[in-house]
Amino acid sequence: MDLGLTGRWALVCASSKGLGRGCAEALAAEGVNLVLNARGAEALEATAAALRQAHPGLEVRCVAGDISQPGVQAAALAAAPQIDILVNNAGGPPPGDFRDWEREHWLAALEANMLTPIALIKAVVDGMAARGFGRVVNITSGAVKAPIDVLGLSNGARSGLTGFVAGLARQPRLAGANVTINNLLPGAFDTERLGKTMAASAERSGQALEQALEQVRQQRAQGIPARRFGTAAEFGAVCAMLCSAQAGYLTGQNILLDGGAYPGTF
């Protein structure tokens, strides 16, 4: 299916690796020009080079830096003639016990996972509405739907964004102008972040690291009905679908991609 995105411009945050890169690759395959952002300039340029080689007809521009900083936001937004698609993405805050978190920990989580996405949404949606097309996809977490006790910082900040989007997406001035805002909630995907989390669990087991890591991977995968982890390419494909011309009637939704791990009906 042609998703009707050829020639559009997308800003994809945290797109040098993992799920963000998966989204960038899927959009590029649909003919979307890209502004890529990530903190690490070297990894970001490597991803951009790979995308340019795979899709020589596209514009792929890089803005390295912390997207929570206003100057980086301004540079990323200015790198394209217009932003038709915004993919908000940021690494989640660290796990822990809420008793150990101080005010600054909460503020950092809110800045990265709630306030920065809102600032970028604010910067682009009115222009999208004026042009009659816009797609915003926020990469949040399956923990928004099924909270994980040690991820309290993420649960709180991302749930705040989810509540905000639920109201904003339904404004007639946006939804009525073909501007949609949806959230993608990943479960366990085979990314570098998941590998680090499992490695930490393996180290605590007291076994030889390689053996323990394989055991942790198998146990985690067996807890998923699909019996495997998702891939960044699968995630990116769903992101591209939400950005498509055909998805104009889908807004304000939380799309859970977790291989069936969430046990609820709703």
From TrEMBL:
Short name of one Pfam family: adh_short_C2
InterPro entries given in the database record: NAD(P)-bd_dom_sf, SDR, SDR_fam
SUPFAM superfamilies cross-referenced by the UniProt entry: NAD(P)-binding Rossmann-fold domains
Family: Belongs to the short-chain dehydrogenases/reductases (SDR) family.
Protein name stated in the entry: SDR family oxidoreductase
Species of origin: Roseateles flavus
